[in-house]
Design goal:
The protein is mostly beta strands and 333 residues long. 1% of the residues lie in helices and 60% in strands. The chain is built from 1 helix and 27 strands. It has one helix at residues 144-147; strands at residues 2-3, 16-23, 26-31, 36-39, 51-59, 67-72, 77-87, 91-102, 109-113, 119-124, 128-134, 137-142, 150-160, 167-170, 174-175, 181-190, 193-196, 206-209, 224-232, 239-245, 249-261, 264-277, 280-288, 295-298, 301-309, 312-323, 326-332. The strands form 7 sheets. A 7-stranded mixed beta sheet has the order 10-13-8-7-16-19-18, with no helix packed on it. The protein has a 4-stranded antiparallel beta sheet with strand order 11-12-9-15. Strands 21-22-27-24 form a 4-stranded antiparallel beta sheet, with no helix packed on it. β7 and β8 (91-102) form a beta hairpin. The longest helix is centred in the middle third of the chain and has 4 residues, at 144-147. The chain is rod-shaped, with a radius of gyration of 33 Å.
Length: 333
């Protein structure tokens, strides 16, 4: 409950008139009675667009004040939020593209509840005047003269782990005061990481969809890839995402070039590897130990070690970074 301040003249008899204006995010419930009564007036205060006139009141007695309650207004609009969760063993990043629409105009402020453990990295929109985080709640103040019936903003949150995490709990950023919500969730991770959703159960308001065809505001660039995707129609969802090293799948092709001359025979073994899933950091190639030890070259090759076991020479070729697509090695004898 709140009480309005009153400025009074020093007179034997004086009456005060108070007008209440509020934005569309709140409802005002005044308490009348005693020396406070609601009145009709044709001269309503004007302080800007999207403000609602909550009533005019007359205070007749010097000891009376206008008391009122304030509470969130019943939402008459819709929130669409498209998420990208980018996962690694060290960090979980949440990127949210939020669209808020209301028939009677977007309110001048939005209140968003953060999922547990996340810190705000940025809040961006051409409509934002300022924002602040307080006790797990993000308060966003918008330019009401420019919002119209729709407001869009992007929020970036992050959560870090003290030790490498094998799984993360994914939960939404909730825009308070709206019952009608919907959107999508895209889960992305390094190409060499497999993402699973243990215990996931489809419901009428939460379903899994194809990550390859999902539209997103945020760019997903290598080595990060789309892994899983969800669609939802309520704001109380939560899923567990587990991380594991993805077993790579690749195709290797070899071509042997033989050069014969008076100086002798020269061999050149060309190996091309095309990665179809995951990533490879190293390759092991085996040739008969009876052949001379080869000189190995490659555009992504970092180092090579060779060992001979049971008549087989094994070349362990380590690359400079995870290979996501294609690489080429040459072994010259």
């Amino acid at each position: 409950e709140r009480r309005s301040p009153v400025i009074r003249a020093d007179a034997e008899r004086a009456a005060s008139m108070i007008e209440i204006l509020h934005d569309s995010a709140r409802e005002i419930v005044p308490e009348t009675g005693g020396g406070v009564r609601r009145i009709q007036t044709t001269t309503k205060a004007t302080v800007g667009d999207n403000w609602i006139h909550g009533g005019s009141f007359e205070i007749q007695n010097a000891d009376d004040v206008l008391a009122y309650e304030t509470r969130p207004a019943e939402a008459r609009g819709e929130v669409t939020t498209d998420y990208v969760f980018q996962l690694s063993e060290q960090k979980c990043e949440l990127l949210a593209a939020i669209s808020v629409s209301m028939k009677n105009g977007v309110t001048g402020s939005l209140r968003l509840t953060l999922p547990d453990g996340y810190e705000v990295q940025s809040v961006t929109s051409p409509l934002i005047k300022r924002w602040q985080e307080e006790a797990g709640t993000l308060h966003v103040h918008l330019d009401t003269a420019a919002t119209g019936t729709e407001a869009r903003l992007a929020v970036h949150l992050a959560r870090t782990a003290d030790q490498p995490a094998a799984q993360w709990t994914l939960a939404p950023l909730v825009v308070e005061g709206f019952e009608k919500v919907r959107g999508t969730v895209l889960i992305a991770a390094h190409a060499a990481t497999e993402v699973r959703l243990p215990g996931f159960t489809r419901t009428a308001t939460l379903d899994e969809t194809d990550p390859g065809v999902l539209d997103t505001t945020f760019a997903i660039a290598p080595p990060v890839e789309r892994k899983r995707a969800l669609s939802y129609e309520q704001s109380d969802w939560a899923v567990t995402a587990s991380l594991a090293r993805e077993e790579p799948r690749f195709l290797a092709e070899g071509v042997l070039l033989v050069s014969v001359s008076d100086a002798g025979i020269r061999l050149s073994q060309h190996v091309t590897t095309d990665v179809e899933r995951g990533a490879i950091r190293a390759l092991r190639l085996q040739l008969p130990a009876s052949l001379p030890e080869a000189r190995v070259t490659g555009d992504l090759l970092r180092e090579m070690r060779s060992t001979v076991i049971d008549g087989i020479r094994e070349y362990e070729c380590t690359f400079q970074a995870d290979v996501l697509d294609e690489t080429h090695l040459v072994l010259d004898f």
